[in-house]
Write a structure and sequence with these properties.
Its cofactor is Mg(2+). It holds the Pfam family HAD. Keywords: Amino-acid biosynthesis, Hydrolase, Magnesium, Metal-binding, Serine biosynthesis. This is phosphoserine phosphatase. This protein is α/β, with parallel strands linked by helices. The protein folds into 3 domains: 214 residues, Rossmann fold, CATH 3.40.50.1000; 112 residues, NAD(P)-binding Rossmann-like Domain (Rossmann fold); 70 residues, 2-Layer Sandwich (Alpha-Beta Plaits). It is 38% helix and 22% strand. It contains 19 helices and 17 strands. Helix 2 packs across helix 5 and helix 13 runs parallel beside helix 17. The longest helix has 16 residues.
Length: 429
Amino acid sequence: MDYFIIDFDSTFTQVEALDELARISLKNHPDREDIYQQIEGLTNLAMEGKLSFSESLERRVKLLQANREHLKLLVSHLKKKVSRSFSRNTVFFKQHSDGVLIVSGGFKEFITPVVTEYHIKKENIYANTFVFDEEGNIIGYDRENPLSKEGGKVILLKELNLPGDIYGIGDGYSDFQLKESGLIKKFFAFTENIERKSVAEKADHVTPSFDEFLYINKLPRAISYPKNRIKCLVVGNVGEEALSQMQKEGYNIRHKETIEDSYLQEAGVLLCNEDTQPTAEQLQNAGRLKVIGIFGKVQSRKLAEVACDNGIIIFDDPRNNPRNEDFIPKRVIAFMNEGKTHTSCNFPDLQPPRVNNAHRLIHIHKNVPGILAKINDVFARHNINIVGEFLVTNSQIGYVITDVDAGYDPGVLNQLKAIEQTIKFRLLY
């Protein structure tokens, strides 16, 4: 059996929990800003391997001045701060509940109530524990716990002696130490929330999201293809709010001054303004491009039609419309994540509801008779159950979304791509 050793702070969650606890417990302290900075500094020194973990932990706990009530507030806060790529991949945790271990220098009191909501077993959570006085104030921690010591994760893993290949995922130096010790097969530096260069440069693989880790290792995942592998070409005046939305989704953002063929041919998404649109000819060779978001109106009917002929959807909005910084990225994201085409200027309108426990397939084809029958014939020949199916057309294309039961031969996808008159085919999730 494979085992997956996952860190908690800045990996499973977006934040460092002790830093957040300090924000709660010291809210009314007159010197709170100075103490916050001390705690954050001690965290970073330990994570970068510049200060022993045991010394960092001891000094941080002394500064906290926290109690059980503060911990309750912290847990509520952390539940809202689970890393996006972890929160959407509950299917992995459910299917690998025996092999997933949370191993952290943090504390069970706040880790357990957060991670157990993701099918992670209590007995697979390894972390420190606080010591309280009679009033419920934190006065220390269990110093016998190996995770309170320098190299604690290495000590723990030696004690566990797990019988199988072990993969480590984390952002800090203590996670890299597992690789350095030879106890794990591969170490993945997790950089969705923070990238520590001293750690990333020593990793077997840098994973900007948990989706990337699952994709590389061919494990069950919520999305078929990690967003960090999809280049989002940004040309012209595109607002910060729009870029922020795309970055939160995990896209690989590329800023360029002009739309050059070489850049466009690598892009899956194009964001541009009204004055920097691609030509119809450029779209003929943009084989990876799936969607264009224009902050302004599309330049010509010909551009919209050529894009449609090539299976490229366009969302546009009047120039300088105050809503378009939010409107355009939301439309692009809804198409990429769920196949929704509502408000597109060149695709037929479709807003399918999301279906859980199913795989969603998109098939774009020339609008000729009989394509839907051929698609369904592939499913029938492989005894694949269709959960839901939607077909819309315009004069140029047919656009089909099919939700099917999980568990089928991947060769089915190649057969769907091979149907005559197919323009583009994509597995969404």
